[in-house]
Amino acid sequence: MQPSNSGDVRYDDPWYDALASGWGESAGGEVPSARRRDGAAAPADVYLEVQRSAAFQEVRSRYRRFVVPAFTAFFAWYVAYVVTATSAPDLMARPVAGAVNLGMLAGLGQFLTTFLLTWAYARHARLRRDRAALELRWDTQELTRGRGGAS
Description:
The chain is mainly alpha-helical. The chain has one domain. It is built from 5 helices and 2 strands; from the N terminus they run ααααββα. It has helices at 18-21, 43-52, 54-87, 89-92, 102-145, and strands at residues 95-97, 100-101. Strands 1-2 form a two-stranded antiparallel ribbon. Helix 3 (54-87) packs antiparallel against helix 5 (102-145). The longest helix is centred in the last third of the chain and has 44 residues, at 102-145. The termini are far apart.
C-alpha cells in the first residue's frame, strides 16, 4: 500500500517530512523571520557565527593536525600489509617462532595499532580539544538562548 496525504502516513516515520508535504504550515503561509521573537538569535545564525570564530577554527585545526597524519600512517600501514600479503606470500610465511609466522605477527600488529590509535585519539581529544569544544558548546547555547556568551 502506497502512503498518501489522506492521513495514513505515520508521524513517527523518519522519512516523513510534514513541512515538505504541506502539512503543519501556518494558514497565512508566511515564512518565519530569521530572529526569534524574544530577541534571541536564530540557531542558524548562531552556529554560523560560532563556525567563523577563531576558537572553533582552532578546535578544527587541532582535530585535523591529529587525524590527517594518523589516518595517513595507519592507511599506509594497512595497504603495506595487504600488498605484502598478496605480492610476497613467501615473506609473510617466514616462520618467526614455532607455528607463528611473519604474516600472523603483521596481522596481530594491525589489531594492536588499531587499539593504539583509538587510545591516542581519545587522549588527544581529552587533552587538546574537549575543553575548548565544551566552551564553544556552552557559548552556542547561551547565544541561542539570547544571553550573550562568554566569548
